[in-house]
Design brief:
Largest sheet: 2 strands, antiparallel
Oligomer: single chain
Structural class: mainly alpha
Strand content: under 5%
Distance between the termini: 23 Å
Radius of gyration: 17 Å
Length: 271
């Protein structure tokens, strides 16, 4: 499985697409990776419950690399709100630790798949409705940001995404411009990914019958190939993000989330 040319080709194509989406939507590509890595592993004989968990963990690990690539491009355009990153990061680490070291290992993969589908559908609906926030609404103070960060880190750890599906709607709800929200979400992907990946590795050390090339819940062949390809495409996604109008960006975001939620709902119900 480790050196299968077809596997490498599939993972490379996935990396190119998710890298572009990471830059375009600030979602770290995780929403695309989890369903496809689940499918790839299941097709190669990995038990369904374990395949979902490994897909979530591996997806999160690739975000470490896509986040660095996309945030550099956003930062050059002055779009990243580093003050927001500083406020949310402590809570993100707390929430990620709770998710990856505790809840993730206890839940069955089928339940994680259903949770993925439900929450992503909710996020897509909120984005598609495009409700205008009250003009007077602003970001909360430090305690509020730490609390919001904890929720973002926790939910991200359970679905293997960089947090954009939560942080982008949260920031736009607080009257942060959509392009700044996407850019800031890309920066938040790094602490989210690092904190969760540490937990996945520790929690997965006692697992048996893992496929060749595994490290805890991480599937290293997928991590290496996807990360290599996605880093190349993330800057192109950033360029596209700054060229698209706000409403188009939100519709792309919502349409993507609905499609992936449907697949994971199917996996959760049939596991």
């Amino acid at each position: 499985m480790f050196l299968d040319p077809l596997l490498i080709a599939e993972l490379a194509a996935l990396g190119l697409v998710t890298g572009f989406l990471a830059g375009l939507l600030g979602v770290g590509g995780g929403m695309m990776m989890v369903p496809f890595i689940t499918f790839i592993l299941a097709q190669r004989g990995v038990e369904a419950d374990l395949a979902v968990k490994m897909a979530i963990a591996t997806s999160m690990a690739t975000i470490i690399f896509t986040s660095i690539s996309s945030v550099r491009a956003h930062h050059k355009r002055g779009a990243v709100r580093w003050d927001i990153v500083k406020g949310l990061a402590p809570g993100i680490v707390i929430g990620a630790a709770i998710a990856s070291l505790g809840i993730f290992a206890l839940l069955k993969g089928s339940w994680l798949a259903l949770f993925f589908a439900a929450f992503v559908s909710f996020s897509a609906t909120q984005m598609l409705l495009d409700k205008k926030p009250k003009a007077t609404r602003t970001l909360p103070g430090t305690p509020g940001l730490v609390g919001a960060g904890s929720v973002i880190g926790l939910l991200s750890g359970l679905v293997g995404a960089g947090g954009g599906f939560v942080s982008v709607p949260f920031m736009t709800w607080c009257n942060v411009a959509i392009h700044s929200a996407v850019a800031t979400s890309a920066a938040l992907g790094f602490p989210i990914a690092v904190a969760n990946v540490v937990g996945y590795v520790i929690a997965g050390q006692s697992l048996q019958n893992l496929p060749t090339g595994s490290f805890g819940y991480l599937y290293l062949p997928a991590l290496l190939v996807i990360a290599s390809m996605s880093v190349l495409m993330a800057p192109l996604g950033v360029k596209a993000a700054h060229a698209l109008p706000v409403k188009s960006l939100k519709r792309v975001f919502a349409a993507l989330l609905y499609m992936l939620a449907a697949y994971m709902l199917y996996k959760g119900l049939t596991a």
